[in-house]
Amino acid sequence: MNRICIAAFFLIMSLTSIAQMKPITFEEYTLDNGLDVILHRDDSAPIAVVSVMYHVGSKDEDKDKSGFAHFFEHLLFEGSRNIGRGEFFNMVEKHGGALNANTWYDRTYYYVILPSHRLNLGLWLESERMLHAKVDEKGVNTQRKVVSEERSQMYDNRPYGTLLEETMKRAFTVHPYKTSVIGNMDHLANADTTDYQRFYETYYIPNNAVLSIAGNIDIEETKSLVEQFFGTIPAGKTPVRNSVVEPPLAGEVRDTVYDNIQLPAVVHAYRTPAQGADGYYAVMMLSKILSEGESSRLHRSLVDEQQLAVQVMNMPLPLEDPGVSLSVGIANVGIDARQLEEAMDQEIDKLHNELISEREYQAVLNQIENDMVNQLSSVAGIAERLANYKMYFGDANLINTELERYKSISREDIRKAAQQYFHRDNRVALYFLPKPQ
Amino acid sequence: MRLLLILLVITPVIFTNCSTKKMRQKASNEAFRANPPSAGTPPEINLGKHSMFTLDNGLKVIVVEDKKLPRVSMQYLIDVPPVKQSEYAGYIDLTAEWLLKGTEKRSKTELDDAIDFMGAKLSSRSDGLAASCLTRYKEDVMGIMAEVIRSPKFDEAEFNKIKNRTQSAIMASSSDPDFIAGNVSKVIRYGQSHPYGEIMTLHSLERINPMICKGYHKNYYRPNVSYLAIVGDITESEARALVEQCFGDWEPLERPLAGPKLPVFPDRTKLYLVDKAEAPQSVVRLTYPMELKYTANDRLAAMVMNTILGGFFNSRLNLNLREDKGYTYGVRSGINADQYVGYFSISGSFGTDVSRLVVEELLKEMNDLRLNKVSEEELERARQYMMGTFARSLERPQTIAQFALNQARYGLGSDYYESYLDRLAAITVDDIQAAAIKYLRPQNASILMVGDAERLKNDLKDLPEINDIVFMDKEGNTLDQEKYILPTGLDGRDVLARYIENIGVTDSVALNTLLIESEGTLTDIPLRSTSWFRHPQTMKQVISSQGQTMQELLYKEDKVIMTQMGQVQELTGEAATDQNWMAYILPEQYILGSGYEVKLKDVEQINGKPHYLVEVSGMASFPVKFYFDVETGLKSRMSYIVAMGNQLSEQQTDYSNYREVEGIKFPYRSAITGQAMPAPLILNVKRILVNPQIDDEVFNQ
Predict the structure, then answer these.
(1) CB burial class (10 A; 0-12, 13-18, 19+) of residue B691?
(2) Is residue B14 pLDDT above 50, yes or no?
(3) Which of residues 153-192 of B touch A (CB under 8 A)?
(4) Is B419 in CB contact (< 8 Å) with chain A?
């Protein structure tokens, strides 16, 4: 029945370009059931990537089910009505493919990379996952243990492994960003079949997803395969989002965490605008100024000149609701946290008071251009960028034009953003200190 | 019907859950979905082209042109046998780092500014440098790379900065179990006398001086032992002109180069334990060295065998330990060829409580591949996976450069990669078993575990496959095992008596009263603690902050009275008995004179040193644990249960920094940690008075 309505698809051919680079061409349309589809052809290697980005992440979990979105991602490899337990990985790998998935605060992303003549297998697998995923008791119990080991390995048994978790829980009071994506293992133990069913029906629906395909593909043939595998999957109710608005921090939040570490770390998490919002690009550029390369300000001053830190970095988290930009410094032997923190603050103060130099400004633009080129080095990377731009910005063509947005930010804008966001009353200041022996 | 369909299409959001279900059901039942779709025609796999030329000075250059993206990457590689660094381990890494700290023409600041301005990357490691940049900067970046390689400034102030920072970096990593496992497994695999088994430590770092580094640079950074691979948006002739300009007049230096001797291969399977107390997981490496050259006839069979064992998600190890048992987030194995000596390794992190089962399963899976042939289907799956991996790797133009580099360095033959897929197709199940028999050595493996060594030792001690358990420190030095075996003829009371003697308490030097004043912090709040003791069992402790009393504890007769922020709580009966042993000036002396059960339970590791664990039962409703340093006889730790309100809570006090006051040794530092505490409480003693006059009033409520 959907065949009749093909005219309802809307198509976009992208032709805009950024300086020096061949633009990424792609076709973009939406199926009747609301599934956004993006197709990019690149014949340089005999491979194709099929990816689905679902607009669901840890921020959509129930409060008492933290970690559920990520756990659910594990479960969605367990099988489907037509795919037995363990067969998901098996079918991909025995055809020479690779697959994985990841979960973030805002979205969950699945991808399969296959030899290009097995494109249809990738589409079939992802349609099975979207249409009728299935998980049995054994799968649930095993994955619960696997996720618990994942948590130990990536967070608890690793120095500074809980840094982001500890920071976010202080940076947000009501917004779900306050809980980590990996979540609470006790909560997972309490999740049951009803929870799985509800989560699946609410979020794993075509009208809450972007299907992004890239590689050695024939566009027309791919379109008809997409229609075959995904066209009849019914849309669901548009998910109702938890629209919690986090109030501004009422002054600096300061705390200390003791961990199995040897050297103190200082974390400053400044509250920053949502992705794409006013001020966002300036915050991204501030990050480069602060810590990209040896000549960046934090690095030069703290690591090189003053030798206070063994490592410094600033990382803005890409989030669709207002988020944070984290500055982290790990102190050199014999340097205490307070000393390091003062030096970090001095660099921030300079950004408040003086414009960055013309040369620094140009360097930042060069660095961003370089990053953007590097993100296009694999079809898997391109598929993910396209899906990302579509889901968060509603404009996949930003893959070609986003650099222009950066170029429109002035040195004054950058100073303004530093003044507006990088100040004490708008941050969490956290000391990570060695647990006493 | 038709109308309805259109409506549905336009406004899908009005679907009720029920009709969605029906539609889902309908879609679910579509016949084509039941089975995976069949394959199309496989695409041809074409290996990209490269060109290679050698400069007059011997520098070998590989160029892969790829116009897809406006960028160029460059890799400079020194191809010399590994050099033994002995007690200066790490100087080759330091040399590489020092190169980036300025050249004869540019200070470090100028160099960093230039690289960062272009948005380029430049990095170094022990065997060379790598750079990448946008096409428009390729000349500048290669020029800088040549300067860095050929004429570094070698500024000594920068050298000292590198040393300081490296020291911090080693310390920062020293609580990372993966880092520890990486280091120690190298030492175990090759031995400390093999260049591959050398690791940089704080001690070796300390010894490294500028002379050694400059010497290494002078001798080994030379065109005649080097490769330069250039990949990306550049033609061969552009590359040739650029390389000639930047490196053409670089002087070669011929010197004899000898490869290392083979390491000692393990004659049996041993378990190596590195302690990371209370770690929730053990980081496991099962490894051993073996002879496997790149040119070995059965190398490809060995690689397929390894894929089946632990080389992909569907490998036996991962399916067994992750997907069936849920013991790990992932486990992998690797079989690695090398010009001098290759190695095998299995790695993963596993829950502490399943360590024994993990070791059993690892050995079982290795044995199984040796004893039984794999099925054709299993072989085919691994083969297809490897073919796909090969095809996927070709997406990166750097792969072609890597292939060319491998062919040149290892003498792989010109059709090695062209014939790869055909050779892979020809591997049989017999080849797999032969490779397993030859390369899997469950009887001659070293199994390293970084985790809670005490638990691991107990859990793993009678495994039939394990011949020895060796304790190691974080740098792979063997700890004296003898010290971890319970001595015969020593009991718990002996250990307590020895402690009392060692701190200097004798019949003539007795403790009747005692005053201890300490200072500390709890989550940034400064605290002061004063404790008064009177023999036999009266004690008062006052904890205050900035002049305000926060908590008072009074142990008197059979009562414990706790005053916290004005609230008084009195414990009596069992709750009081559970705690009032703490009121003794020397609980150990009191225990010796009592009828309580005193057991020497074990020798455990604390801060890398063996400690006797003495457990006392009967004194409280739970056993109280004391830990005494085997060497010094001093008490390092006490662990017990305390009542916090209605909750029982585990608490532990660590003692250190013993100092003598009037002939008796006291710990000047104690760290108290507990389940109910927000953070550790560290107390440093400011004053101790032995046998002072104490006013009776002190002990009044």
Answers:
(1) middle
(2) no
(3) 161, 164-165, 167-169, 171-178
(4) no
Retrieve residue B181's tokens.
């496992």
Minimum distance, in Å, between the CA of residue A177 and any CA atom of chain B:
23
Considering the domain architecture, whether residues A309 and A401 belong to the same structural domain is answered as yes
Higher pLDDT, B579 or B322: B322
Percent of chain A at pLDDT above 70?
95
Judge: B351–A98 Cβ closer than 8 Å, yes or no.
no
Least confident window among A105-109, A293-297, B652-656: B652-656
DSSP helix/strand/coil, B145: helix
CA distance A45 to chain B (A): 5
Q: pLDDT class for B532, splitting at 50, 70, 90?
A: very high
CB pairs < 8 Å spanning A and B: 291
A270 inside domain: yes
What are the chain A neighbours of B381 within 8 Å (beta carbons)?
Answer: 90, 93-94
The domain in which residue A149 lies consists of 2-230
Q: Tell me if the bond preceding A46 is cis, omega within 30° of 0.
A: no
Q: Which CATH class is domain B492-699?
A: mainly beta
- Report d(CA B478, CA B470) in Å as an integer: 7
Interface test with B, best of A120, A146, A400 (most B CBs within 10 A): A146
Task: Identify the CATH number of the domain defined by range B270-479.
Answer: 3.30.830.10
Specify the residue for token string 């860095």: B148
- Does residue B700 register a pLDDT over 90? no
pLDDT beyond 50 at B172: yes
- Evaluate whether B345 touches B285 at the Cβ level (below 8 Å): yes
The per-residue pLDDT for range A178-197, each reduced to its tens digit, is: 999 999 999 988 888 888 88
Judging contacts by C-beta atoms under 8 Å, the chain A residues touching residue B176 are 158-159
Fold of B51-247: Cytochrome Bc1 Complex; Chain A, domain 1 (3.30.830)
Chain A residues whose CB is inside 8 A of the B171 CB are 262-263, 333
- If asked whether residues A131 and A207 sit together in one domain, one would say yes
According to DSSP, residue B675 is labeled T
B357, two tokens: 């089962």
This complex has an ipTM of: 0.89
